[in-house]
Amino acid sequence: MVEWAALEKRYIRKGIVSSNLTLSVLRKFMTQFLNNNLILIIAGLAVIDIVLIFLFLRTRKKIKIFVKGAKVMDIEEVVMEQNKIIKEVKNDIKKLYDHDKELQRICDISITKVGVVRFNPFKDVGGDQSFAIALLDSNDDGIVISSLYTREGTRVYTKPIEMGKSTYNLSDEEQEAIKKAIK
């Protein structure tokens, strides 16, 4: 039971009610308020209860999905296991990133561009037996190989290429092979 006298003194001290408000008036007001609004209070508490039950069931469903397949239903252990998995995945991603950098370094110096031109350098020899082939990396560095076919034999020449250019004079066919490779 509420000690109405102590409550009344506290309210008077705080200035919430005046000293001429008696204990009986306060009791009468509270009783009347509760009687008049009891249905509203119960309805409000029922709505709050339904909302809390809904939130609880939704959270429970999410937790079941989260711990699905786990041997232990303790949420702390599941979180620790997930944290361990995340660390392993981060480590794997770092390894993949390092491996990718190494592969990129290898690709940068590997032949990735090829251009071939077949031609007939001499009128008396039939067919396009001769060729020029450009073998370049991603920086357009590499070599161009030319093969000239004659009745007496075949001659093969190679010239270095840096950034798509050579310090040696290039034939039209060699330049065309480089252009094809760079495209």
Number of strands: 4
Order of helix and strand elements from N to C terminus: HHHEEEEH
Q: How many separate structural domains?
A: 3
Query: In which range does the helix fraction lie?
Result: 55-70%
Compute the average pLDDT: 84
* Overall SS class: alpha+beta
Count the DSSP helices: 4
Taking pLDDT < 50 over at least 5 consecutive residues as the criterion, the unreliable ranges are none
Molecular shape: rod-shaped
- Computed Rg: 45 Å
Gap from first CA to last CA: 93 Å
* Order of the strands making up the biggest sheet: 1-2-3-4
Can you characterise this structure?
With 183 residues, the chain is of the alpha+beta class. The protein folds into three domains: 55 residues; 35 residues; 70 residues, no CATH class. It is 55% helix and 16% strand. It contains four helices and four strands; from the N terminus they run H-H-H-E-E-E-E-H. The model has no long low-confidence stretch (mean pLDDT 84).
Write a concise keyword list for the protein shown above.
183 residues; 4-stranded antiparallel beta sheet; 4 helices; 16% strand; rod-shaped
What is this structure's SSE topology?
Elements: H1 4-14, H2 23-66, H3 75-109, E1 113-119, E2 130-136, E3 142-149, E4 154-161, H4 172-182
Antiparallel strand pairs: 1-2, 2-3, 3-4
